[in-house]
Amino acid sequence: MATTIFTILLSVLLFLQSYPAIALRSHAQKGFTLDLIHRDSPSSPLHNPTSTLSDRIRSSAERSFSRFAHLSSRSASSNGSISAWVLPKFGDYLVKIAIGTPAVEYSMLMDTASDLTWARCLPCKRCSHRPPEIFNPDNSSTFKNQRCNSSLCTDIGHCDLQKRCQYTYVYADRTYGKGTLASETITFEVSDSQSVKIPNINFGCGHESESFTDFDGVSGIIGLGGGPLSIVSQLGSLVDYKFSYCLNSPISNSFSMLKFGASVQPPAAIRKAVKTPLVKHPANETGVYYVALKDISVGNKKLNVPAGTFKPTPNGKGGTIADYGGTIIDSGITFTFLALEAYNLLEPALKSAVKLQSVPSPLTHRHLCFSYNDANDLDGLPNVILHLEGGDWLLPPSNAFVVFTEGVVCSTFIAGPRRFTIIGNTAQQNVYIEYDLRNRRLLLAPTDCGRSI
């Protein structure tokens, strides 16, 4: 009898021990949602309470120029290598995740143009910050250095004299980072006050990061690119190889959202969404997402952009992303940089459609702005439509224009070089956007991102 009772108790104990993992796996498969915080939000560690709206717009423009320059210059055949990782200062939206055991929470910048998730780690050279902003691997029982003979280390790292797998990356502005490739348990504190804990996520433990010295409160980036190191690829079938986000305007008081996995009950707007393919790059670039943009309309007037303007070319003579051209959708750049041939058609179409006086742009780049007297003058601003393979993406005036300063409204399009286009996050605000990595497909649906998805 005692043996029977002991057996029952042991079975119950083993079930209870396994139950959390079962529950978490089920919760993850249904999809879990995290809050996204715009860097200018009062909830952000990067918030500057003294900055004006004009200051924030100018800063976002400067970040856009820097990110555009970096993405333009990176190798198109990197396949997620270290050289492809993007400077964290270019991001606009932050997400909180917890790293290690016991789990410690950190603010990370979301980046759809990077694969590796990485955080600054102790010991940290050239770091002006202090814990808990910097992860201490010695305090975690689940931290594991990558073995020197692992495929990850062989592909993108190198071994040091202590047999640790190291990485080094250098950016176009000559800033750099160094660290250890490792694996760790990542905990996602989801919006319904539950948590999803995933073990053995490959990440970078950054011990030297010159580019990160002036970002108090931000610890690294969460990489959502399309390559095998992406956290989406690592979560894999657990989230059906899908993630989505819905970005609020920076002036909104509501959080934006980042979701892993498919929507359980998608709203009617999503069921009627545009579905467009994610284009495979001819040089096998996997770290960024390409879409098939065909043409553009201003109001009901199509620009008739020459065929091939937005398409990657088979041969990039310089070997960079910009040399191959094509159209990228990116969460970390604010404005949309339009291929020059297309911008030359867009600018006169906007001037014709907008019944306001054009004025010089506050920016140094080619960019169209107008003067206005009061808010009523902005009622007549036109829609801009991006004609994608599979359907049309309508940008209302709130996505196609931004008030730069009092009395000056500007388009959110900037002239880019040659045939290289990047669709920025202002165009993506109040649009539910789902990335399906397995089926190489993007879903877009106009949505009120202030409401729960």
From TrEMBL:
<feature type="signal peptide">
    <location>
        <begin position="1"/>
        <end position="23"/>
    </location>
</feature>
<keyword id="KW-0064">Aspartyl protease</keyword>
<comment type="similarity">
    <text>Belongs to the peptidase A1 family.</text>
</comment>
<dbReference type="InterPro" id="IPR033121">
    <property type="entry name" value="PEPTIDASE_A1"/>
</dbReference>
<feature type="domain" description="Peptidase A1">
    <location>
        <begin position="93"/>
        <end position="445"/>
    </location>
</feature>
<keyword id="KW-0325">Glycoprotein</keyword>
<dbReference type="InterPro" id="IPR034161">
    <property type="entry name" value="Pepsin-like_plant"/>
</dbReference>
<dbReference type="Pfam" id="PF14541">
    <property type="entry name" value="TAXi_C"/>
</dbReference>
<dbReference type="GO" id="GO:0006508">
    <property type="term" value="P:proteolysis"/>
</dbReference>
<keyword id="KW-0732">Signal</keyword>
<dbReference type="InterPro" id="IPR021109">
    <property type="entry name" value="Peptidase_aspartic_dom_sf"/>
</dbReference>
<dbReference type="GO" id="GO:0004190">
    <property type="term" value="F:aspartic-type endopeptidase activity"/>
</dbReference>
<protein>
    <recommendedName>
        <fullName>Peptidase A1 domain-containing protein</fullName>
    </recommendedName>
</protein>
<keyword id="KW-0378">Hydrolase</keyword>
<dbReference type="Pfam" id="PF14543">
    <property type="entry name" value="TAXi_N"/>
</dbReference>
<dbReference type="InterPro" id="IPR051708">
    <property type="entry name" value="Plant_Aspart_Prot_A1"/>
</dbReference>
<dbReference type="GO" id="GO:0005576">
    <property type="term" value="C:extracellular region"/>
</dbReference>
<dbReference type="InterPro" id="IPR032861">
    <property type="entry name" value="TAXi_N"/>
</dbReference>
<keyword id="KW-0645">Protease</keyword>
<dbReference type="InterPro" id="IPR032799">
    <property type="entry name" value="TAXi_C"/>
</dbReference>
